[in-house]
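We give the entry.
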Amino acid sequence: GQNSGYTTSNLSLSLIEPGVGFEYAFGSKSSIRFRSAITSIAGLYKQQVFGMEDYFVSFTFHPISSLAIRNYYNIEKRDYNRRRTDYNSANYFSLSAIYMFKNINETEKGIIPPKGGFIPSFLWGFQRSFGNRLFFDINFGPGYHFNESKIMPISELSLGIHL
């Protein structure tokens, strides 16, 4: 059922980006979330071919670990309107630190971009729970990839179950 304390601690297993996450509630509207998963990255990159510039799309798979501080800004309103708030079903802002390991589909030419590295980011997202334990979580925002020295869009999609 509903929780009048708002945020709760929970363990989750995601199926779309296979991984496990643990969210620890430390306030009525705040939590820290640790997550390890395998994610896919798509990017448009420039290369030199026979002296001419050419663009290519890189599609890679990376193990990641992330730590995020989340602030659920509308969980109190959802509870007041008798909407579902269990398993932190609300919208949030997040400061996130993502560490992306080198890609697991490396070729003989070397590492396909993006290379692994540290990516701090500021994300907006929402998390919803359905039925008994199913959940949907999506977030997006800007992040800075230190190894590539550039700002890049970050987006995560999780669909899974709360354990």
